[in-house]
Amino acid sequence: MKQPSNLKVVIVNGRPGVGKTTFEEICEDILGSAYCAKRSTVDKVKEIAKAGGWKAGKELKDRKFLSDLKDLFNEYNDMPLEDIVQFARGWEEDLGYYGVRSHPHVLFVDDREPEHIERVKRKFGNIATTLLIRRPGDEDVETSNHADENVFKYTYDYIIENDHDIEKLKYEAMIFLNLIFSKNDGIIDL
What we know:
single chain; alpha/beta; 5 strands
């Protein structure tokens, strides 16, 4: 008999530098590193870009290049979404092997484009939720691509205002985790 899963998929968005990674790391500290995984819809795209000579830069032109390449893969074979699904399946299998699939665990999926966020959310169904992390002035950050420009053009399930110190963000993370795990979503099967 397959062990029931207590997986939640949190699709995270926010402009560069607002604290998305910090928030995810805080959640990892709360849940434990074995129960928190992170994957971006651009991770596989980055692997392919590196094989093609991309030097892992973080300049605006690099962000545009990755965004354009991701768009091509989305259109061609939906590779960014399929990569997330395969990653989740593999992680669930690993947790099942160790007999801990029923322990609360979170897969953070970093995604930028509203239409892609919605597709990821639909793919994972009722175990998925969306989260926007904001910081005062983040709407003034210079962008180079449609993914960064369209961050605020989606209706998120949760919004966290990262406008104080790290202790406040830790408090917000604890509340957020309690909220998502208080939902009874039933058993999932990836």
